[in-house]
């Protein structure tokens, strides 16, 4: 019987893991199934562009993985039974189930309201394609002079507010951030960010904690009201609750706790990658939720699984950071160079050159997803008898 590997989620992390496993393991004794709720790959790092009316190229997963040996199954994951080794699904024709010997959990993250009242009812987000399209429709309804407030001063918030301000210069656009604007950046990068924000006419409410969202604006911890016809919530992301409902060991954030090979510390037949994993990075600091973490962690997990199943040496964990890239509209950006453990260096690339670098990175990530096995040499090795016990014993 074939060794069954199931990958949950076809974002940057899940897609890369499935494709790499297909290049590492022989199809005669392994079966790789990729489960995803959407039939198309969602280019998540461009959701702020989608929200402002830009067109994104569709990429159907069945086309992407045609000829790779990866079986694509379009279904919503509703539960994981880590003791039985099964995943509960809802497909077009009703509920179903799939069993696994090895599971790669890559369901990623979504927007979270952190318990702030009114976010779900009154705020938009760019956490996924449906949310970005809803925001797109709402922005299209706004007349000149209408107010738009983006809450959250992280990478997503900054990219969203600058994209909206550039696309709709007729709107009154503002940003509310709990800390100072870009205060994690180097002096050079932070100064450039402020210059761009001023040029785009964005009002910034720094050191402002939003404690409530209303239909006509937000309320701050000081009791002040910031008016807004449209509020966009980008103040953090959380993981899907599925893992926390299992017997898998999870962190306080609901992420699956893994070792430095991306394997669950409680269930050796489960690996978690990308945003879904609480994984140690350089110097033990946890990897942050990002594409920069998702792709290399997925590649590592795939190589580790293949090595263990084929009786080869497990590769070392070399996941680290090089830069943080922040688009500031379509013609400007900041590329902040960082240390391997994600601390900013004094140097940064800014302006149009940085925008070109950011665009190349985004295109490269999408291209690697659309051509998941093109540059990776095929080394499809057979599972060594007895090594399959490293996962769940086939039923």
| CATH class call of the largest domain | Alpha Beta
Distance between the termini: 9 Å
Question: In what order do the strands lie side by side in the largest sheet?
Answer: 3-2-1-7-19
Domain module tally: 2
- Percent of residues in β-strands: 25-35%
Specify the biggest β-sheet. 5 strands, parallel
How would you state the average pLDDT, rounded?
Answer: 92
The name of the CATH architecture of the largest domain is 3-Layer(bba) Sandwich
Radius of gyration: 22 Å
Helix content: 25-40%
Q: What's the β-strand tally?
A: 23
Q: Which stretches of 5+ consecutive residues score pLDDT under 50?
A: none
Précis, in short:
The chain has 395 residues and is α/β, with parallel strands linked by helices.
Describe the structure.
The structure is a single chain. The termini are close together. The radius of gyration is 22 Å and the shape is globular. The protein has a five-stranded parallel beta sheet, with helices on one face. It folds into two domains: 3-110 and 237-321 and 379-390, FAD/NAD(P)-binding domain, CATH 3.50.50; 116-233, FAD/NAD(P)-binding domain. With 395 residues, the chain is of the alpha/beta class. The chain contains nine helices and 23 strands. Keywords: FAD, Flavoprotein, Oxidoreductase. Its cofactor is FAD. Pfam families: Pyr_redox_2. It comes from Micromonospora humidisoli.
């Amino acid at each position: 019987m074939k060794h069954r590997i199931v990958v949950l989620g076809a974002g940057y992390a899940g897609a890369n893991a499935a494709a790499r496993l297909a290049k590492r393991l022989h199809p005669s004794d392994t079966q790789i199934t990729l489960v995803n709720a959407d039939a198309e790959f969602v280019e998540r790092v461009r959701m702020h562009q989608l929200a402002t009316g830009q067109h994104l190229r569709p990429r159907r997963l069945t086309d992407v993985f045609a000829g790779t040996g990866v079986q694509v199954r379009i279904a919503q994951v509703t539960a994981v039974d880590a003791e039985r080794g099964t995943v509960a699904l809802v497909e077009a024709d009703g509920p179903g189930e799939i069993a696994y010997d090895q599971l790669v959990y890559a369901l990623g993250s979504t927007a979270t309201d952190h318990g702030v009242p009114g976010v779900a009812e009154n705020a938009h987000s760019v956490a996924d394609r449906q949310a970005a399209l809803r925001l797109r429709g709402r922005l299209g309804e706004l007349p000149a002079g209408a107010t738009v407030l983006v809450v959250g001063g992280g990478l997503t918030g900054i990219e969203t507010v600058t994209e909206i301000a550039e696309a709709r210069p007729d709107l009154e656009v503002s940003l509310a951030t709990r800390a100072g604007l870009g205060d994690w950046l180097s002096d050079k990068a932070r100064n450039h960010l402020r210059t761009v924000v001023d040029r785009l006419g964005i009002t910034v409410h720094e050191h402002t904690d939003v404690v409530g969202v209303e239909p006509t604006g937000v309320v701050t911890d000081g009791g002040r009201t910031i008016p807004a016809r449209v509020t966009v919530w980008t103040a953090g992301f959380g993981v899907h609750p599925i893992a926390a409902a299992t017997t898998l060991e999870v962190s306080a954030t609901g992420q699956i706790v893994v070792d430095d090979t991306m394997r669950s510390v409680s269930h050796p037949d489960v690996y978690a990658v990308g945003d879904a994993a609480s994984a140690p990075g350089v110097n033990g600091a946890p990897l942050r939720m990002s594409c920069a973490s998702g792709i290399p962690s997925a590649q590592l997990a795939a190589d580790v699984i293949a090595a263990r199943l084929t009786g080869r040496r497990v590769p070392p964990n070399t996941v680290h950071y090089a830069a943080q890239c922040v688009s500031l509209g379509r013609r400007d950006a900041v590329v902040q160079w960082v240390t391997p453990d994600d601390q900013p260096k004094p140097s940064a690339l800014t302006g149009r050159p940085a925008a070109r670098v950011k665009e190349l990175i985004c295109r490269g990530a999408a291209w690697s997803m659309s051509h998941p096995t093109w540059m990776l040499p095929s080394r499809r090795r057979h599972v060594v008898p007895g090594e399959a016990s490293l996962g769940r014993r086939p039923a």
